[in-house]
Amino acid sequence: MATSKLDERRLMSDEEFTLVEQTRYPVLGKLEEGALKDLTQRLRERRDRARDIAHRQRREVRGKSRQATSFEKQDAGNRQKARVLAEALTRINSERTRRKAEELRENARRALALRQGAEASARPDSGRTPRKGMQKNASTRRDRIVNPMDAGRISQAGKRAQAVRDNA
Predict the structure, then answer these.
(1) What whole-number distance in Å separates Cα of residue 157 and Cα of residue 134?
(2) How far is CA 37 from the centre of its chain?
């Protein structure tokens, strides 16, 4: 659930509020990559600190800490502060994703323009084509040394010799 700016102002210090304000739309779109990285790092540090303090306060209320605290001091808004800072980080991550996608789209456009503008490469001839009617395919087998008729004559002689032995 989004938090109103009034609640954010109440929960955070001036410095933290200016950090969160930089994650809103018009300002966030104008930030450079280096400033965006720096802002992300600072917000993560603040969020982690607020989360750790809220965790420690919850432990103190349950009596699991060295020092037990009273109910009035149990939550000084650190959970809400951590949530607001996490929302700001979510906005930053969305902006980074958007920028990355835009960069990829631009790279694809540039590659397409280069490809369309390039001259056609010299390709080898396509080889035999069916333009002149049917043609005999060149044989890929090796040449035979023996006459095929001799091969048939010899195998037939072997069959006859075996038949004579079987019948004898």
Answers:
(1) 40
(2) 20
H helix count then E strand count, the chain: 6, 0
CA dihedral 128, 130, 132, 133 (to 10 degrees): 130
Say what the pLDDT of residue 127 is.
73
Q: Which residues constitute the domain of residue 20?
A: 5-114
C-alpha angle with apex 11: 5 to 15, nearest 5 degrees? 85
- pTM reported for the whole predicted model: 0.63
**How many whole angstroms from its chain centre is CA 165?**
77
What's the domain count of the chain? 1
* Rounded average pLDDT per 10-residue block, the chain, 168 residues: 80 91 92 95 95 87 70 72 94 96 96 86 72 75 78 87 91
Residue whose entry in the numeric block shows the structure tokens 């001839």: 125
